[in-house]
Amino acid sequence: MDTPAQHDRHGRGRTSRRRPLRLLLAAAAAAFTLTAGLATPLNPAAEQAKAADDGKKVLTVAVAQSVDSLSPFLAQRLLSTSIHRLMYEYLTNYDPKDNHTIPGFATKWEPSEDKLTWTYTIRSDSKWSDGKQATAADAAFTFNKMMTDEGAATANGSFVANFKKVTAPSPTKLVIELKKPQATMAALDVPIVPEHIWKDVDDYSKFNNDKTFPVVGNGPFILTDYKVDQYVRLKANKDFWRGAPKFDELVFKTYKDQDAAVAALRKGEVSFVAGAPALTPAQAASLKGEKDIKVNEGPGRRFFALATNPGARTKDGEKFGDGNKALLDQRVRQALFLSVDRKTIIDKVFQGHAVEGEGYIPPRFSTYFWKPSDSQKLAYDPEKAAKLLDEAGYELKGDQRVGKDGKPLNFRILCHATDPNDKAVGKYLKEWWGDLGIGLEVQCLDDVSVPWYAGDYDLAFDGWSVNPDPDFVLGIHTCAALPTKAKESAATDNFICDKTYDELYEKQLAEYDPAKRADIVKQMQSWLYDSGYMNVIAYPNAVEAYRTDQIKSIQTMPTAAGNIYGQDGYWSWWSAVPAGGTSEASAGGDSGAGGSTGAVIGIVVAVVVLAAGGILIAMRRRTTADDRE
């Protein structure tokens, strides 16, 4: 749901994310009550006029999804985690030029000789937006809360699962003691929160951080307002240690229709459209060559895949759900793998705006990128697929495959109703699998999380945003990521649990040698590939567009052929310089310099609303429209 993939940056697969359905329903009811009393939806023209009168520079951003939670302890969706990168500092950050680790809240970090104790020097020039000093004690509080409170461990718990003790001997010194070596210690993507604010939270599993504004933070922007499925409003933090953003306000606005957002871009009503999660080939083509519009395209950090339900179960082995038992046979899974023509999907669906899928990690991350050998590759081969089905006992009788029990071989696949790629690929699968005698029902839903959590599916379109450190997207396939109780939200992606894979996961987590760790990660991808559980079809490009008469410059990540929306950091919106006289060289400095007085820049990233009627349900981030960071 970047995500994953986003997003995929995080070693969070080792601790369950428990969001029981009763809590989801309660959240929905609360959100419905809240929405019933909301003011009229944000009017861009009126808001911009008001901002102009106030002399503010406003950057309006909308994204391809709804907010699941504004609590950094609960949020999983790409939109929400992206907002948290703007609100709170992390110990470390990623350089926008090439993704290498750079200082964040910590200015330096050093392990002990045995790699079991890590000491971080915390910067002394970071303040919370209420004026209080941000210190190592805040970081220690954040990690200790995650270590001791199950609710606080919902989103990022796997980062601290191996922590033995966390202390703050001084305001600028943080010490983390480990149970065993952990390779992700320079990539702990956990938002650090202010202890003096969060210590009073009663229930971390329910607190969404969306009732009292402004929300105290120490990032480049401060959260000032939020309306469910309408907008999230932030203002520039003038005291941000790296320098203030050039815009006074940042607004993430919800668009119900992507075509409408593209039309607004043409009219100059908005300045940035990213799509859901990318512009369609037709939209991108129609915008190329338009005056004052630039289409930005680069290799993406996501994968687009088919996930197979291997049999939903809890950590203690309790089985639930109604997944087709035929998929427990590796031969059947591989037969489905062999009957997917990736080249056709790249050419016809993505129309060249994607790379053919192979391993689990996108080629953008070359260190960890893996692809199968010629002998291992499960390339499009319907004849071989048919033979595997025969071997598995599913004979072709007429035009239908039938099992030994006499029942036809039929599958269901979960599809995101808001994602045109899911629907288009679903049509091809129905045709290809139909030729093999397999029936397929493409179930396109606005909310796929309910059947997914319940294990009531056979296959599903899946995808995560992947980060420079791939630990998170690897961890979501471990046994530890399974739910504690049936049908509860958890860290697991699709209920995979295998001893061999788990051993490889623990091995890579403890390996500090980059080359050796990369080799282990590739072994894990090889296992996933052979298993047939994760069929990576494509690596979609990031395709977005913006108005050059409204945006003078904006940082891509990586700098060469990178994306603007959904970065591993706050670089794009923090660096954005409005057109009309603002000096690019002063980007990130005093926002009083440059810029036309009263200029209002509306920058909108098109959003597809995933929940109707203003009802907010904390749903799991799933594939394209729901990518994690």
UniProtKB/TrEMBL annotation:
The keyword Transmembrane applies. GO terms for biological process: peptide transport. The keyword Transport applies. Pfam families: SBP_bac_5. SUPFAM superfamilies: Periplasmic binding protein-like II. One of its GO terms (cellular component) is periplasmic space. Coiled coil: none annotated. Keywords: Membrane, Signal, Transmembrane, Transmembrane helix, Transport. GO terms for molecular function: peptide transmembrane transporter activity. It comes from the Bacteria. Residues 102-474 form the Solute-binding protein family domain. Residues 1-38 form the signal peptide. It is found in: Cell envelope. Its main location: other. The chain crosses the membrane at residues 599-619. PANTHER family: PERIPLASMIC BINDING COMPONENT OF ABC TRANSPORTER, PERIPLASMIC OLIGOPEPTIDE-BINDING PROTEIN-RELATED. Belongs to the bacterial solute-binding protein 5 family. This is Periplasmic dipeptide transport protein. It comes from Streptomyces jeddahensis.
